[in-house]
Amino acid sequence: MSENTNYQKNQLFIEEAKRHVKSAKKLTLGHYITSSIYGQIHFFLGTFNAVIAAVTASGSVFQKFTNKEIIISLLSITVAILTALITFLNPDERKRFHLDAATEFESISTKLERFVNVTFEIEKPNEDIEKLLDELLDKYRKARKSYPLPGWSWWFVTEERMKKNWESYSG
To answer: Contact at 8 Å (CB) between 51 and 122?
Structure first.
């Protein structure tokens, strides 16, 4: 193989890896944001539910009201609805899922970046480099299937957030 062909093949490897680095970073950020949102949902629903449950349980708080039974009944229904909502949404489990996904994609993007940096310095591509890229991309594709990102999460993954997020890591 000529030097020019080796260089071109190397460049193809690098370009493909760079594309996937950016995509993996977007997925990392998207999953971190999604994890954070589910954490906040869990916190607010849980806190609101606990406060209302405590107030409902202490019916003596409402002794001054003439219709205390109605108010306590409404609060009991609210607690039941919030409990069902927390059970159905399971925001804590979803938070952990997306945090695991973010960690996985961050690991993949770091490995792909290392691949780009090492491959850039190698003049002659070889089967080991091609095999390594294939393994990394296979891991990336499996992670994309295993850790889907909700469609609404993409709204939060902007170029501005990407730049700000990754600058804070390199700082």
So the answer is: no
A 10 A CB-CB count for 121 gives: 7
**What stretches of 12-154 adopt beta strand conformation (E)?**
none
Give dist(CA 152, CA 161) in Å, integer: 16
Q: One-letter amino acid identity for 4? A: N
Contact of 22 with 116, CB cutoff 8 Å: no
Q: Give the SS3 label for residue 16.
A: helix
The pLDDT tens digits of the residues spanning 51-82 come to 888 877 766 555 555 566 777 777 788 888 88
Domains and CATH numbers, the chain: 3-170 (1.10.287)
DSSP 8-state class, residue 148: P
Read off the pLDDT of residues 27-42 as tens digits, 9 standing for 90 and up.
999 999 999 999 999 9
pTM: 0.74
